[in-house]
Amino acid sequence: MTEETPSRSQAPGTAPHGADVRRGPLRPGERVQLTDDRGRMNTITLTPGTAFHTHKGFINHEQMIGQPEGCVVANNIGQPYQVLRPLLSDFVLSMPRGAAVVYPKDAGQIVTMADIYPGARVVEAGVGSGALSISLLRAVGDGGYLHSFERREEFAAIARGNVETMFGGPHPAWKITLGDFQDAVVEHEAPGSIDRVVLDMLAPWECLDAVATVLAPGGVWINYVATVTQLSRTAEAIRDDGRFTEPDAWESMVRGWHLEGLAVRPDHRMVAHTGFLMVTRRLADGVTGITPKRRASKPEFSEEDMNAWTPSSVGERAISERKLRRAARDAASTVQTRGTQDPALRAEQLRRDKS
């Protein structure tokens, strides 16, 4: 198990870490986004002595180095390209990755719904490619603290490279540790010392005790899971544990719009399901949480019940026999009423009644 300790070299009163690399002329070694006249985008790293090639010519990197952000440069055959630094949402979707990244729409929800604030003490697992770590570091700022846990060394190396690329070097608030979260976090963080816990992992229910130990009373625990079964099992484990508030879950979907003259309409494609988010908060020690009143259903989750789900167990309201009989009478009454309006149908109905 290894770790890197954040450096606190940021001088008081200076600009937040990484702000300087987002301003000024374009420099060697930074990533820029090239957009052509058809809206096609390419992200490159400015390197002296090299060129960006397409099937429509090439651009020497020296044409962009030293230019202001937002300039337009032409390649060797006159094809124009707009040059901008990529936004965070662009960067995380184009950066090197070893694991799937947390999409910007979900990262924004995590930062907001988990109330990640400047100066907060946050732990996360797993790091993946570092997309969410970047958003969390921006939220906690130089005076905050983010301790990331990752099981795989190669993922940690990719995340470290992406974070340092985004911020222009190591971030003073970031520490990354190799190891299993449920074991490592209690070794490195004091009980009740953490404000927020963010888990993006396969089985977050296995971390209940670790989260309850390090999370301060009132602290927020947010989970990012991919499937309904993960969501259900995590929710039931939190309810059974008793040290947390009633969990709240949701997902977000983003649909872009096509804007061209009067042709304003939804795009044909959208960023739909990427994962579920579920948030809960730590109760004070010795306190029994308030259980919301709900219809009786089977609350427990077990592997043996995977194929034995019933309508009541997933929250569907049972339909009484009385309601079914009433609906049948109403349907029959509707048919009879319609029949009395048509002479042919009325005659057929009378014939049937006599027989």
What can you tell me about this protein's structure?
The chain has 355 residues and is α/β, with parallel strands linked by helices. It has 3 domains: 58 residues, Vcp-like ATPase, Chain A, domain 2 (Roll); 215 residues, Vaccinia Virus protein VP39 (Rossmann fold); 34 residues, no CATH class. It has 9 helices and 16 strands. The protein has an 8-stranded mixed sheet, sandwiched between helices. It has a 4-stranded antiparallel sheet with strand order 3-2-7-6, with no helix packed on it. It has a two-stranded antiparallel ribbon with strand order 4-5. A hairpin with a 5-residue loop joins strand 2 and strand 3. Helix 2 runs parallel beside helix 3 and helix 5 runs parallel beside helix 6. The longest helix is centred in the last third of the chain and has 21 residues.
Number of domains: 3
Number of strands: 16
- Biggest sheet strand order reads 1-10-9-8-11-12-16-13
**Basic shape:** flat
Order of helices and strands: EEEEEEEHHEHEHEHEHEHEEEEHH
Oligomeric state, counting identical vs distinct chains: single chain
**Based on the structure given, which CATH architecture of the largest domain is correct?**
3-Layer(aba) Sandwich
Helix content: 25-40%
Number of helices: 9
The share of residues in extended strands comes to 15-25%
How would you sum up the major sheet? Answer: 8 strands, mixed
